[in-house]
Write a sequence for this structure.
């Protein structure tokens, strides 16, 4: 069975003391992570040592970065590389979140380089894709997302692509309280899997975890995750509330 993943994306939120409180609450809140499941916490970079220490020794729980640079080292003031994260034991990195694409002009080509950098560090990219509202309203979401995937990931080998986690996040559903319906999520997740099947074969495509993101919360997680091609979620707002995120973990297949 594909890995089922609940990934928290804290974005640029919380003070260090708030982060510590949330991590303590999360660990104290009742949740169960089965052998085929993972809980991943993409915290602000400066809180990674704290999160690593708080989550140490827990099975199938990982601390992640929200971004990295495409080079492994050098004169890139303010940036952090996948190699540097790996040296801290951080082996999951979110790439190409729509907020980074929009506010930091991250292109498909740059994200292809970042993906290579994460894989070169023997780490797992959590690669985000997803369409804006106008594209969805025009019914062009499948081809829009397909282009994002082709441009940034199709240079990878079959072995490499099985190391990538995909996060489909429709931009119109992020932070808006509007989720895709479970039917809409299943439809595009199945399409994304078919795109990989066409390129790499069905057996490879069946190994790729595809997460849904966009206003996932305790109340809707079970319904969305129950869809056959939805392998968990990438969660923003609700991941900042311990009881919510614990319930989202418990909603995994
Ligand atoms: P929300 O869950 O707050 O809608 O954010 C989704 C997201 O962008 C996760 O990366």
């Amino acid at each position: 069975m594909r890995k089922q993943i609940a990934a928290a994306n804290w974005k640029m939120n919380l003070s260090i003391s708030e982060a510590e409180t949330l991590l303590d609450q999360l660990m104290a809140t009742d949740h169960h992570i089965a052998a085929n499941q993972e809980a991943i916490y993409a915290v602000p970079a400066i809180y990674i040592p704290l999160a690593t220490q708080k989550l140490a020794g827990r099975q199938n729980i990982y601390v992640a970065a929200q971004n990295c640079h495409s080079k492994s080292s050098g004169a890139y003031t303010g940036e952090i590389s996948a190699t540097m994260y790996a040296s801290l034991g951080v082996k999951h990195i979110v790439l190409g979140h729509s907020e980074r694409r929009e506010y930091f002009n991250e292109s498909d080509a740059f994200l292809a380089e970042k993906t290579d950098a994460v894989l070169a560090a023997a780490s797992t990219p959590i690669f985000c894709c997803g369409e804006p509202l106008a594209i969805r309203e025009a019914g062009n979401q499948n081809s829009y997302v397909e282009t994002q995937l082709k441009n940034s990931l199709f240079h990878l080998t079959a072995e490499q692509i099985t190391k990538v986690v995909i996060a489909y996040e429709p931009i119109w559903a992020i932070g808006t309280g509007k989720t895709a319906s479970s039917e809409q999520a299943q439809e595009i997740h199945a399409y994304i899997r078919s795109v990989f099947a066409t390129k790499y074969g069905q057996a490879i495509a069946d190994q790729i975890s595809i997460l849904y993101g966009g206003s996932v919360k305790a109340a809707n997680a079970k319904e969305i995750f129950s869809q056959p091609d939805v392998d968990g979620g990438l969660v923003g707002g609700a991941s900042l509330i311990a009881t919510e995120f614990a319930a989202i973990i418990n909603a995994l297949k």
